[in-house]
Design brief:
With about 150 residues, this protein is an all-alpha fold. The protein is built from five helices and no strands.
Length: about 150
Amino acid sequence: MQNNNETTVNVLQELNQFVNDRIEGYKHAAEATKNPAHQSYYKDLVNESNMFSNEINRNISKYGGERQESTTAKGKIFRGWMDVKSAVTGSDEESIIEANLTGEEWAQKAYNDALDHRAELPESIVQMVEKQKQTSLTTCERLRQMKKTVD
C-alpha cells in the first residue's frame, strides 16, 4: 500500500505529463499558425504551461519524487498525426484551434483524474490542481470563441 507522499508524487507526475503535452502542443500551434494574434496567445499558453509544470515539479520534489519532464505517449501520437494531417491538407487556423481544444479536453480529464485522489492529497495540492484546472477551462472557452471567428 502506498503512503500519501507516494500517492501525491504519482498523481502529480502523471498530471505533469499532460501539462508537458500542453507545452508541446502550444509550441507546435505557435509555429503552425499564420495569425499573429493567435501566435501570441499560443506563446502565452506555453509560458503559462511552463509555470504550471514548474509548480507541479516543485511539489513532486517536496514530496520526495523525481521531476517529470516527459510527455504522454497519447500526446506524442496526436502531435505526429497532426503533423501528417498538416502536411497533407495544410494547416488552417480552424484545425490548429481544434487540435488545441482536443488537448485542453485531455488536460481537463487529467485534472479530474488527479482530483479523484482528493482525499489522499494534501489540501495545498488539491488547491493547486483546482486552480490549474480552472485556468485550462478558461482556455477551452477562449479557444471555442476563437474557433467561431475563423469558421
